[in-house]
Design a protein that fits this description.
methyltransferase; alpha/beta; five-stranded parallel sheet; globular; nucleus; transferase; S-adenosyl-L-methionine; about 210 residues
Length: about 210
């Protein structure tokens, strides 16, 4: 699944229906929850990078929040041990993580254009410690496993807006997360759609 808010296409901000709560699937479906939308976003960003060398920026959750995530990682997991899994987007976030000193990073996205863009940015930055894979997180390969840390800063928000049975896709996400993380692994998530209490409820079965 794409880390929808990682790119320059804007954060996946939800509109709630007049009834219910997220547990009742009360988000109004949006194109921001579809693969077609993010494929188009990363195709445009890839073309922009190829023509102008523009790498984009962290538009959500912003540099300050990103620094907090990185500092949290550093306090809880030694740099030499950390095996980090991050949803790609346009690569800007995990480039920041790599520059902080973490040396074992895997980035995935279901959009080949996002992976191509990420690879180009990594090459431009001169980084060699990042592995990239085209993967759909809702149906991950068996090779995607054993991570100390998983960081999500937009993917779950985007999934929550999918017009095609978002409730089941959220459950698939939780199941996939339990597969890719090690026992007692860490899951770091930022969201502009969910409160802390709602997220704890969503992931309580993971």
């Amino acid at each position: 699944m794409s880390a929808g808010a990682d790119g320059g296409g804007g954060a996946a901000v939800a509109v709630r229906s007049a009834e219910g709560s997220p547990g009742d699937d009360s988000f109004v479906p949006s194109a921001l929850g579809t693969r077609e939308h993010w494929d188009a976003v990363y195709e445009r960003e890839l073309q922009t990078f190829q023509e102008h060398g523009y790498t984009g920026e962290i538009c959500w959750p912003g540099p300050e929040s990103v620094n907090r995530l990185i500092n949290w990682n550093n306090r809880h997991v030694p740099l030499r041990l950390a095996n980090i899994f991050i949803f790609c987007g346009n690569a800007i976030f995990f480039v920041a993580v790599a520059k902080f000193g973490f040396s074992n990073i895997t980035g995935i996205d279901y959009s080949p254009s996002a992976i191509q863009l990420s690879g180009s940015i990594i090459e431009k930055e001169g980084l060699s410690n990042i592995k990239l894979k085209v993967e759909d997180f809702l149906n991950p390969s068996t090779k995607l496993s054993g991570f100390h840390i998983c960081i999500d800063k937009g993917t779950f928000d985007a999934i929550s807006l999918n017009p095609d049975n978002a409730v089941e896709k959220r459950k698939q996400y939780v199941r996939s997360l339990s597969r890719v993380l090690r026992v007692k692994g860490f899951f770091l998530i930022t969201s502009c759609n969910w409160t802390k209490e709602e997220l704890l409820n969503e992931f309580s079965e993971g």
